[in-house]
Amino acid sequence: MQRYITSGVNEQISIDIQLFCWYCYEVVKATGKYDYLQVFELKTVGEDTQQIEHRQEVPEYNQVYQLKSINPIEQKIFIIDEGEYATMLLAEEY
Length: 94
Description:
Organism: Turicibacter sanguinis PC909
Number of helices: 2
Structural class: alpha+beta
Number of domains: 1
Radius of gyration: 13 Å
Strand content: 35-45%
Mean pLDDT: 97
Protein name: DUF960 domain-containing protein
Number of strands: 6
Distance between the termini: 21 Å
Helix content: 10-25%
CATH architecture: Roll
Low-confidence stretches: none
Largest sheet: 6 strands, mixed
Pfam family, one: DUF960
Strand order of the largest sheet: 1-6-5-2-3-4
């Protein structure tokens, strides 16, 4: 499957966070029970912790991760699965 990212993701989201989100998407996809729309809510927890909430609507799924980070950010990312390819984009680019 081809993977794409938008210019907003490329400019605002670090490569380690991008790779982590792709990994989470692949884990859910491997179950066969995944929604075409994956949501990743990034929140700052303290000065050095990045919280990432990964969720989907159908079937309902929600997982929260906390990672050490030098520069945690606040942002919402979508991964949209189009079958032959998937695109990662910022919510504001949707």
